[in-house]
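Morning F.,

Quick status update on the modeling queue. The single chain you submitted on Monday has been processed. Sequence for confirmation:
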Amino acid sequence: MCGFIGIYGPEGVDVAGEIYEGLLAVQHRGQDAAGITTFTDSFHVKKGLGLVLQVFNESNMARLRGNLGLGHVRYPTIGSNRGEDAQPFHLPYPVGVAMAHNGNLSNYEELVERYFRNTATRLNSTCDLEVILYVFVQALQERIGAGRKILPEDVFYAVSVVHREVRGAYSVVATVPDVGLVCFRDPYGIKPIIFGEKETDEGKWFACASESVVLDVNEYTRSFDVGPGEAVLVDEAREIHRRRITEREHRPCIFELVYFSRPDSFLDDISVYKTRKRFGEALAQQWADEGAPTPDVVMPIPDSSRDAALAMALGMDLPYREGLVKNRYIGRTFIMPNQQSRRNSVRRKMNPIGIEFEGKKVLLVDDSIVRGNTSKRIVQMVRDAGATEVYLASTSPPLLAPCPYGVDMATKTEFVATGRETDEIAEELGADHLVYLDLDRMNDCGRAGNEKIDAFCNACFTGEYPTGDITAERLRSIAGDRCLNRGEAVTDESAPASV
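Structure tokens below.
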């Protein structure tokens, strides 16, 4: 899970300011590093560890000149959390290309072995984007030879090579000097990417981003979602070229709707806000169907579950209350780089409004329950604040399988649901009752926003991986990499023995 934006503006403008605003809008997608790369007669780069507000200042923004550029906020999966892994990346030779991405390569180690080990070529980082960039540039150079102008067909050929060689889930934006703005999506369309346009006094602007809210804040019109296996090029004449490079079934990640994305975003023409409302309505019905105990009040565990909690309260004809106040200056605990950071941040992340809990049976609604650390502490916090009973509802099913596609839940031992029935999970979390939204109901809520989507990627709930290349050995390799990068021990239990 990362965030990016690429912009191609009219001649004579500087796009860095809009890129900066866009990165602020997707700061929730990555808090570890940020970067911007623009181009005039050369690449101009500023990137580093930290939040957008920490990395950029008036001085370094002033040197990010040019009407072609891209930006990125990073959440580490493959690779370390060192400065050299901050995106965007660029190569000035043999073809000048700058690139950023969202996602994760499931065959990263194989690609490193094939292209870099025992060769004269070396990587500058441990980030998987560098491999995508290398494959793309190498294919482009082989196609055009020496000195020929790059044409749309050449770009599409290079994307086809990436699709053939690179496995996993990824959405990519690239700037190619003297060519234009390029964006493409993995063959299954697991990771989102949205394209937009606007007209100003200076001329026509084009942008692509990992969430539509990035376009909104810069006043672009959302034109289309880049499709699965599709590539888009905006050339120097400002003509848009689109090509479906690889034909596969569309399997967008359902967790984008559950948790990752802002409620004011659209992904694949699906409103995140309305989907989360539908989650709450479906949970209200399921709560009744299962004969679950009746609470006195419904409350969200902020922030991603707020829309669902309100819809659930309305569906159950119960009061909705805000009982937990979140400290907005504490990062999202789910994407903290290691377990100890998550534990420390939970203790200072939320504070209860005591008068809302005293003597009440409280139903807490959360978007998901992953490791259970946060949920367990919140349940105890609510009890300490005076609640007589504490119930939990999750807008997604139990998380059971590692995600190799760019979500930092890489090992089976991290899931509180592993090897437990629902009542056992409730006991582990200290809750009096627990209901998970049914898998089919969750998917129906997503499809209601766009009936053209037949199915979502549900791999983290089912262990069924749409790319078809995920083996137990590959999962163990990814799990080992993640554990090492988070400073945690690697064990034989890090991944399942079979898939």
